[in-house]
């Protein structure tokens, strides 16, 4: 399928995870309003919960919400503040309820192919990559989809 004919410009796969939620927050806050994007993962219920938590936690300091590595949290807070200062707070409370959900499990090749052929770019944040990262790369290659991970 021609990339231009695809339904989405970006799909965030692994949207229920730590980095997946951050990516969704970023796209919802700073992405163009006409960006066609979707979130993906293996559980519809967890994806719907992730949408709600991203809306609830957006704007809350990473130091408060994550309780993880303090240096990493401070860097994320500083990065977000720098972006806000440059572009203004386009969407202080990101709305994700309208964002479509795509179901794709790393253990189900057909679901990976079905996901990758719907989008121009796949942002792969499902992990660990050593366990779930190989088949999705093959699916992206097979469907001619741009692929990006961390
Ligand atoms: N966190 C970091 O700072 C960091 C830095 C560099 C690289 N990375 C790498 O980035 C990746 C994501 O990291 P993370 O910290 O965001 O991980 P995480 O919070 O543990 O999230 C893992 C994600 O992978 C999904 N997943 C697991 N098995 C799956 C399967 N069979 N099919 C589809 N989805 C599946 C999970 O979905 P469910 O909700 O359904 O379980 C969840 O969305 C990892 O490979 C990690 O090594 C992370």
Write a concise keyword list for the protein shown above:
5-stranded parallel beta sheet, 47% helix, alpha/beta, binds NADP nicotinamide-adenine-dinucleotide phosphate, single chain, 150 residues
Protein architecture, described:
The chain is of the alpha/beta class and 150 residues long. It has a single domain (10-58, 93-149), classed as NAD(P)-binding Rossmann-like Domain (Rossmann fold). It is 47% helix and 16% strand. The protein has helices spanning 18-30, 44-57, 62-65, 70-87, 109-116, 129-132, 134-143; strands spanning 8-13, 37-41, 101-103, 119-124, 146-149. The protein has a five-stranded parallel sheet, sandwiched between helices. Helix 1 (18-30) packs across helix 2 (44-57). The longest helix is centred in the middle third of the chain and has 18 residues, at 70-87. The protein is globular, with a radius of gyration of 15 Å.
Largest sheet: 5 strands, parallel
* Coarse morphology: globular
Q: Summarize the helix and strand pattern as letters.
A: EHEHHHEHEHHE
**Which fold name fills CATH's third level, the topology?**
Rossmann fold
Helices and strands: which structural class?
A: alpha/beta
Bound molecules: NADP nicotinamide-adenine-dinucleotide phosphate
Count of folded domains: 1
Number of helices: 7
Strand order of the largest sheet: 3-2-1-4-5
- According to CATH, the homologous superfamily is NAD(P)-binding Rossmann-like Domain
CATH architecture: 3-Layer(aba) Sandwich
- First-to-last CA distance: 26 Å
Q: Into which percent range does the helicity of residues fall?
A: 40-55%
Average residue-wise pLDDT: 88
């Amino acid at each position: 399928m021609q990339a231009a004919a695809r339904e989405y410009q970006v799909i965030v796969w692994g949207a229920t995870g730590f980095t997946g939620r951050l990516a969704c927050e970023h796209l919802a806050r700073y992405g163009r309003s006409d960006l066609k994007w979707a979130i993906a993962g293996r559980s519809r219920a967890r994806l719907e919960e992730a949408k709600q938590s991203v809306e609830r936690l957006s704007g809350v300091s990473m130091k408060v919400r994550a309780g993880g590595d303090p240096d990493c949290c401070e860097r994320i807070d500083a990065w977000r503040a720098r972006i806000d200062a440059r572009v203004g707070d386009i969407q202080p409370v990101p709305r994700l309820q309208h964002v479509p959900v795509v179901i794709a499990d790393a253990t189900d090749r057909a679901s990976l192919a079905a996901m990758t052929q719907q989008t121009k770019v796949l942002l792969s944040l499902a992990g660990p990559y050593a366990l779930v990262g190989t088949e999705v790369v093959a699916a992206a290659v097979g469907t001619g989809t741009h692929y990006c991970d961390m």
